[in-house]
UniProtKB/TrEMBL annotation:
The protein's enzyme class: transferase
Descriptive protein name: Elongation of very long chain fatty acids protein
GO cellular component: endoplasmic reticulum membrane
Membrane topology, from the record: Multi-pass membrane protein
Molecular function terms, GO-annotated: fatty acid elongase activity
PANTHER family noted in UniProt: ELONGATION OF VERY LONG CHAIN FATTY ACIDS PROTEIN 5 (PTHR11157:SF18), FATTY ACID ACYL TRANSFERASE-RELATED (PTHR11157)
KW Lipid biosynthesis (keyword) present: yes
Pfam families found in the cross-reference section: ELO (PF01151)
Location(s), subcellular: Membrane
Family classification: Belongs to the ELO family.
Keyword annotations: Fatty acid biosynthesis, Fatty acid metabolism, Lipid biosynthesis, Lipid metabolism, Membrane, Transferase, Transmembrane, Transmembrane helix
BP terms from Gene Ontology: fatty acid elongation, monounsaturated fatty acid; fatty acid elongation, polyunsaturated fatty acid; fatty acid elongation, saturated fatty acid; sphingolipid biosynthetic process; very long-chain fatty acid biosynthetic process
Amino acid sequence: PSSNVNIYKEELDLFVCSDTRVKGWFLLDNYIPTFICSILYLLIVWLGPKYMRNRQPFSCRGILVVYNLGLTLLSLYMFCEFLMRGGWRSTWNWCCSPSDRSMGRETLRIIRVLWWYYFSKLIEFMDTFFFILRKNNHQITVLHVYHHVSMLNIWWFVMNWVPCGHCYFGATLNSFIHVLMYSYYGLSSVPSMRPYLWWKKYITQGQLWSLVCARKHMCIYVYM
């Protein structure tokens, strides 16, 4: 019986803040807010198209420009921070960087950037909400929904257990791809800009390559 209690306690401990460096940070002390946000997102994905079925689609052009360019700037900030504070440090190992549990200034700074990366996954739920409002339901695929929900939840656990070391790599790649993606989406909302958006054809390729690279990089961590 006592061993069962210990097992249950260890399982419950997974869902509370474990890294003392992020204790008290917004949304990180407990898993429940992230879980509730995920459930609300799924409910909106299910009910939103039903609500919009007999209604005219919204244009959302102005707010889309602001939203996408805002995420472009946030992604650019994160990418530069990851590159400058993580990737170019002399202690960094691109293949397998050990977990850094220190309270050093540079380490805490990169953890703060990783928190923004986690929080950006919540902001990006708006991608789907804009699809619903504009009645672009064909873009709300199973993969799209899975990606948004899984990224928010995965990164809650990353922030609570390993907000350091090996996790920089995938976040760096993803931030760079999002600079390309959201800058394109933002500028394409302005019809006069569309002929100049030459990088559109590289976005999907970049997303696929970043996914493959991040998965292979994680395998290095598991098997080395």
